[in-house]
Structures are given as structure tokens and as C-alpha cells.
């Protein structure tokens, strides 16, 4: 990943075809040693290809990948009924109080940055 990031930085800087030595120079400037095998593979895979087209193609492929959904939707509001509305409201308030208690139990008296 670090090799690809350095390669992309070089292309953004105007070098349309960075060499392995160019990538090594970028990585070396921040104290990272390049892995020769991975770097050679990256350079050979990207040689002669347009990065903008590769990124656009990859984005299209990612758009078709299922992302696991967005979780459950919010609960439905109470239905408007003629009678028994007070009982439903009382039942709805009870779980809210239990949730507050659970949250305070998880805190255990200290915060993340204390």
C-alpha cells in the first residue's frame, strides 16, 4: 500500500510514469525502506496504463460490491388507535429507561481519554 501511495503521489506531482527509483526516493524521504519485490510488481502492473482510467474502472467495480447494508431503520411510530393508547405509551417509556441504565453500566466510572 505504501508503494502505491508513493506512486500516486508522484503521478499527482506531474510524473506520469514514475520509476522504481522515484518511488524509493519518496519512501526514503520519510524513512521507509521499499520492498524490492512488491515495488517491481507494482511498476510492472502499472506500466503503460492510465491511472485515471484504472481508478474509474475500480470505482465502477466497487459500486457493484454489496456493502453489508446500513443497519436497521428507525422503529415505526405508534399507530393511531382509538383505545389503549396510554398502555402503549407506558410500554414504550419502560425500555427507554432500561437503555439509559445499560449505558451507565458500560461507562464503569472512567472515560476513554482519562
Briefly say what this structure is.
By secondary structure, this protein is mainly α. It has helices at 2-12, 20-29, 36-46, 51-63, 85-107.
Major beta-sheet overview: none
Order of helices and strands: HHHHH
Multimerization state: single chain
**Rg result:** 28 Å
Quickly count the helices: 5
Distance between the termini: 34 Å
**Roughly what is the average pLDDT, rounded to an integer?**
76
Q: Helicity, in percent? A: 55-70%
Structural description of this entry:
With 114 residues, the protein is mostly helical. Helices cover 60% and strands 0% of the residues. The protein contains five helices and no strands. It has helices at residues 2-12, 20-29, 36-46, 51-63, 85-107. The longest helix is centred in the last third of the chain and has 23 residues, at 85-107. The mean pLDDT is 76.
Which SSEs are present, and which pair or pack?
Elements: H1 2-12, H2 20-29, H3 36-46, H4 51-63, H5 85-107
Helix pairs in contact: 1-2
Question: Key terms for this structure?
Answer:
single chain; 114 residues; mainly alpha; 0% strand; elongated
